[in-house]
Model the fold of this input.
Amino acid sequence: MKNNDNGNLPFVAIGNDELGGPVPDDALIKCKRCGTPHKLEYGTNAAGVETKIVGFVRCGEEAYLVAVDGHLVFSNEVAP
Ligand SMILES: [Zn+2]
Done:
């Protein structure tokens, strides 16, 4: 992770009451930017091992946070 312009590590705080429903590992997430389904991907820890802590989708050149600890966040939805 890179420091931002202020020299601080960027962070996002999400409380348990902000977590949505559990999301299957192979879920497609309805993209809030382009409206099409994108594959849910997970980040890796410092050892390079995939963890379920942070889930995201890629849309174009960007990656968007959609899941934390296996639960949807920010009102994201699994694609029908
Ligand atoms: Zn998209």
In short: The two ends are 33 Å apart (CA to CA). Residues 22-72 form one domain. The mean pLDDT is 89. Residues 31, 33-34, 36, 38, 59 surround zinc ion (CB under 6 Å).
